[in-house]
User: Fold this.
Amino acid sequence: MGNLVAIVGRPNVGKSTLFNRLTKTRQAIVNETAGTTRDRQYGKSEWLGREFSVVDTGGWVVNSDDIFEEEIRKQVLLAVEEADVILFVVDVMNGVTDLDMQVAAILRRAKSPVIMVANKTDNHELQYNAPEFYKLGLGDPYCVSAITGSGTGDLMDLIVSKF
Ligand code: GDP
Ligand code: MG
Assistant:
């Protein structure tokens, strides 16, 4: 496919909201409860004249914690296999969770570049929560707010610099 960006992470961190912002659509369904997006949703994006595809992952129905973790694992492994750039979305309002650690463990072995996106940085105070994400071992967290759009231009710059 060429220039494919995959968005991964645990539920409710804002993957679909970020997908909609990057693709300037409302394709992905954003919901207060996890499990409403289809498994994988593809869209197109363009930045500085460079086109790329974006895949949003993680819209499954939660039956049990086991199935849930297995589904996340599956989506992350797929992303590692097919994506040219991986956006690992975490949530500055919630901090690091066990699921974040599990996802990070897989992503640390990825050959493609991983950009850790510290989403929900709606204001400057929330930036102070971001250093916690260094413990995931994936480098610098990039603070954005998918809702306000803050930081997403810089994120796009970074994404296209990786192709
Ligand atoms: P997903 O499960 O990772 O796809 O997360 P969603 O995109 O469905 O978002 C989950 C919840 O987080 C929704 O209520 C969103 O409105 C909210 N959300 C997403 N991005 C942001 C953000 O930048 N700031 C805040 N405050 N909330 C956000
Ligand atoms: Mg979603």
In short: Residues 32-37 have pLDDT under 50 and may be disordered.
